[in-house]
Specification:
The structure is a single chain. 33% of the residues lie in helices and 19% in strands. It is α/β, with parallel strands linked by helices. It folds into 2 domains: 13-104, 2-Layer Sandwich (60s Ribosomal Protein L30, Chain: A); 110-268, SPOUT methyltransferase, trefoil knot domain (Alpha/beta knot, 3-Layer(aba) Sandwich). α3 (39-46) packs parallel to α4 and α6 (129-141) runs parallel beside α10. The longest helix is centred in the last third of the chain and has 17 residues, at 252-268. The chain is elongated, with a radius of gyration of 20 Å. The N and C termini lie far apart (44 Å).
Amino acid sequence: MITEPLELPEPSQATLRGARQLLRRQHRKETGRFLAEGPQAVREALKIPESVESVFFRWSSVREHLELLEAAQVAGVPYYAVSEQNLATMSDTVHPQGVTAVVANIDVPLEAVLHDAKLIVICAQVRDPGNAGTVIRCADAFGADAVILSSDSVEVYNPKTVRSSVGSIFHLPIVTGVDLVTAIDACRAAGLQIFATDGESGVELTQLGDALARPTAWVMGNESWGLPVEHVALADQSVAVPIYGQAESLNLATAAAVVLYASASAQRN
């Protein structure tokens, strides 16, 4: 338990500079590091042994995050107090959340997630970081075994992707940089059926019946144009989420939540 007086070291300029540079994709790629911003993301990252390299607390709000400070101490992770201005240089948001961590990349190889997998999400050409993060959060919520981001999708370590996952990026395996055909072929070889979401499909989610209970990989397409015809053709079945009201369509994250809930529920019955 932390007692008075509360004293935190200040980072060196080199340490600050290294953290700031992680806002740039090229630097993330070169170093294999990324930024996790916010209490929930930092809390979950600290649960992964040897994953967090350093934690930065805003001086004015350290006492709001004593649990995280204690967790960093227990894990032997270096921690620092910084000014509001310095913390802002590590964030792409207008109002930083008071704590940020430097974390080592956590993505895993494709083959590492396929053994005994029952539910996988494949994001194909998903370009919006907020959507990608929310899909990861949905996958986590409904017990998916992994999320695969195709090589033409947004970078999983984009700060907005990490932030939008609200810590879920640290809860389930994430595969990145895999060609869509390769991902689908590997999932099928591992015994998963391939369903592709397609609003124009003649088969609705409610018509799948017992098929939903089988091991499944759901392919989710781009936010604006969905899945192109050639990608839909890679699936065993295209599936539409039925809309009973007057909305024209569902956004990507909402559609992902619906189909994942349906699969997860069927698999647990």
